[in-house]
Automatic annotation (TrEMBL):
Record's keyword terms, sorted: Membrane, Sugar transport, Transmembrane, Transmembrane helix, Transport
Entry annotated with the keyword Iron-sulfur: no
Organism: Acididesulfobacillus acetoxydans
Residue span, Major facilitator superfamily (MFS) profile domain: 21-407
Any single Gene Ontology cellular-component annotation: plasma membrane
Membrane association type: Multi-pass membrane protein
Main location: membrane
Annotated TM spans: 21-44, 56-79, 86-104, 110-133, 145-169, 175-195, 232-249, 261-286, 356-376, 382-404
Name of the protein this chain belongs to: Cis,cis-muconate transport protein
Record's subcellular location: Cell membrane
Molecular function via GO: carboxylic acid transmembrane transporter activity
InterPro entries, per database record: MFS, MFS_dom, MFS_trans_sf, Sugar_transporter_CS
One Pfam family matching this protein: MFS_1
Length: 414
């Protein structure tokens, strides 16, 4: 019997296939987080190695974010036109290879170049993988699937913390990149042999005799224009909140609290463990109460936890704040990012839309936030700037959520 779009929407895709796609996309997101958090741990030593300032090093994060914008948009276009499978596998192998090459960087200029090339693959991975997953799972489980994907970031953070505590020695930043590269390459090879094409995309291609439109242009045409702009803006809010928390947190703990490697690792693990729990809890509830209320409640929680999160001279309150902000911020707020962004777009332009708008938000929020905090940290300190970033982005997200429609029950097969 043919599998119709309605069957797909109702969960006609075999559960084994759903689980496999969930595993691949989540592990890809784990590796993304692992790389990013690893970079924050070794930032000081890279700066010393190449004799650059915090603001200059912050621009390494920014150039990676810029590359993600290009990689996400191009990868999304390819995925909408030729299918999700091959572009996703290519992106996994690509960023694994350039992760390894980054560790070989003899100069800061080449480090810039390798991070840019790495970012192309990483931006493409999330932009293709998430729409594939959202098209695969039943509509009443999209929020939970989104929450499960988003635990990838805190889990990646925990793994980076454990690796940092286990093998890191003063100045030895290069082996961190070598070790981080191996799982990405293995995951790409695994996906090559196990990943199936999106049935929703195949059905759409059959109905339209191929998807030949230019999705980037269509994203900014007619009624779709506001949805695209809104997705860019809301993702900017997501990323400002995240980078305000994560970009300089290990540096903040080391520089302003003078914590040991073990203590920095422990507090960061607690934050990420709370985020993993929050992602599952709020992802589950987003299927019950909708995306609006999930973002609103978790954004308010982030605002309440932000002052404790960075309070000085009291380690106990700082740890409590880290748990609260982790649960509501990278946990609660981010639990719906995958589903909410994908729900802005119809199937024929979903990967391109997801790739462009998520990475567009990452460009605006992720490229500027680390640099601004790095530049102003000498005058105001990391703690104050991180608090301001969390508070302002949380308010912005609440506003943006309530000026757009609820998408919990959207049919992803259309």
């Amino acid at each position: 019997m043919a599998i119709t779009t309605q069957t797909i929407q109702d969960g006609g895709v075999p559960k084994k296939t759903q689980r496999n796609i969930l595993i691949i996309v989540t592990l890809g997101w784990v590796l993304d987080a692992f790389d990013y958090l690893m970079l924050t741990y070794i930032a000081i030593d890279i700066m010393k190695n190449f004799n650059v300032t915090a603001a200059v090093f912050g621009s390494v994060i920014s150039v990676t974010v810029l590359a993600r914008l290009f990689g996400g948009a191009l990868g999304g276009v390819f995925a909408d036109k030729w299918g999700r499978r091959i572009p996703l596998i290519t992106s996994l192998l690509w960023y694994g290879i350039f992760q390894f090459i980054t560790g070989l960087s003899p100069t800061f200029t080449l480090l810039y170049l390798f991070r840019f090339l790495f970012g192309l693959g990483m931006g493409s991975m999330y932009s293709i993988g998430v729409p594939l997953l959202m098209e695969t799972v039943p509509s009443n489980r999209r929020g939970l699937a989104s929450g499960l994907v988003e635990i990838g970031f805190p889990v990646g953070g925990i793994l980076a913390s454990l690796l940092y505590a286990a093998i890191y020695s003063n100045g030895g930043w290069r082996p961190m990149f070598y070790i981080a590269a191996i799982p990405g390459i293995i995951l790409g090879i695994y996906a090559l042999f196990t990943l199936r094409e999106s049935k929703a995309w195949l059905e759409k291609r059959k109905q339209e005799q191929g998807i030949n439109k230019i999705p980037i242009i269509n994203l900014f045409s007619g009624r779709q224009l506001w949805d695209t702009v809104h997705s860019i803006l809301v993702n900017t809010g997501f990323l400002v909140l995240y980078y305000s928390i994560a970009a300089w947190y290990p540096t903040f703990l080391k520089e302003q609290h003078h914590f040991s490697v073990g203590m920095v690792s422990l507090i960061t693990i607690l934050l990420n463990l709370a985020a993993a729990i929050g992602s599952i809890v709020f992802g589950f509830w987003s299927d019950k109460i909708g995306r609006r209320w999930t973002i609103t409640i978790s954004a308010v929680g982030s605002m309440l936890g932000a002052p404790l999160f960075v309070i000085l001279h009291n380690t106990g309150l700082l740890v409590i704040g880290a748990v609260i902000i982790g649960f509501f911020g990278p946990g609660g707020v981010w639990s719906v990012n995958a589903s909410y962004t994908a729900e802005h777009f119809p199937l024929s332009m979903r990967s391109a839309g997801h790739g462009l708008t998520y990475n567009g938000g990452n460009f605006l929020g992720g490229m500027l936030t680390p640099v601004i905090i790095g530049l102003l940290s000498v005058q105001y300190g990391f703690g104050v700037l991180m608090t301001v970033g969390v508070l302002s982005s949380a308010v912005f997200l609440i506003i943006m959520t309530w000026i757009w429609r609820e998408t919990r029950d959207m049919d992803m097969s259309l």
